[in-house]
Amino acid sequence: MKNILIVDDNKQILDVLKEYAVREGFVVYTAESGKEALAEFESRSYEAVLLDVMMPEMDGFEVCRQIRKISMVPIIMITARGEDFERIMGLDIGADDYVVKPFSPSEVMARLRAILRRVDVSDTVQTEYLVRGNLRISIERFQAFIGEQEVHLTKKELEILWLLASQKGKVFSRGNILDSVWGYDYFGDERTVDTHIKRMRMKLDAYEHPGWEIVTVRGVGYKFEVCNE
């Protein structure tokens, strides 16, 4: 059975999500504040976190940042507000999905199942590094190196880089990337792909990599191009 952590300062929402998650067969632990959530997270191993954004003292964004320093556990952010900048911010700091209140608990469970299916699939990938020129990537270890220098990418940035590099020369549309990295049930704006790739490029371009590059194909999407083949 899989442990999940549900964090929300609204006890009614907390109880409803817990009830639905228990029905799904999860072992559920709860927290009603950001500080309590971090203490709870450090006390045991979790397979996923449902995390409210608006909480006193420490909001969900900061909790997500702190968790990402020590773990790549799937995180679904939950918020009462649905502005694009908040959704993009949550994804940029490492959240895997975003749900806006009021929501259907059944939808939240469906998104949780989808994320855990993707994690189960990724667990079967080979442990060897994918090598493209002086670039080495490991999805299992969530590491990327250019030469001997480690490039510190977010979870989504690394997954996008792996996707492009694993099929060098293939052009991926923004929709293709959303489906492959965020999942078919993600309803977000395709612009989030551009945001992630822009930030990823800035990190990659801090190091010399003359043999390859991430290329924009105008009107279509992106591809990983090896220059010396």
Based on CA atoms alone, the radius of gyration comes out at 18 Å
How is the main sheet built?
A: 5 strands, parallel
Class by alpha and beta content: alpha/beta
Order of helices and strands: EHEHEHEHEHEEEEHEHHEE
Distance between the termini: 48 Å
Low-pLDDT runs = 123-127
- Helix run count: 8
* Widest sheet, order of strands: 2-1-3-4-5
Q: Approximately what portion of the residues adopt beta-strand conformation?
A: 15-25%
Number of strands: 12
Oligomer: single chain
| Average pLDDT figure | 85
Helix content: 40-55%
Query: Looking at the structure, what is the overall shape?
Result: elongated
Write the layout of secondary structure elements.
Elements: E1 3-7, H1 11-23, E2 27-31, H2 34-43, E3 48-52, H3 60-68, E4 75-79, H4 84-92, E5 97-100, H5 105-122, E6 130-132, E7 135-138, E8 143-146, E9 149-150, H6 155-166, E10 172-173, H7 174-182, H8 191-204, E11 212-217, E12 221-226
Helix pairs in contact: 1-5, 2-3, 6-7, 6-8
Structural overview:
The protein has helices at residues 11-23, 34-43, 60-68, 84-92, 105-122, 155-166, 174-182, 191-204, and strands at 3-7, 27-31, 48-52, 75-79, 97-100, 130-132, 135-138, 143-146, 149-150, 172-173, 212-217, 221-226. With 229 residues, the chain is of the alpha/beta class. Strands 2-1-3-4-5 form a five-stranded parallel β-sheet, with helices on both faces. The chain has a four-stranded antiparallel β-sheet with strand order 6-7-8-9, with helices on one face. Helix 2 runs parallel beside helix 3.
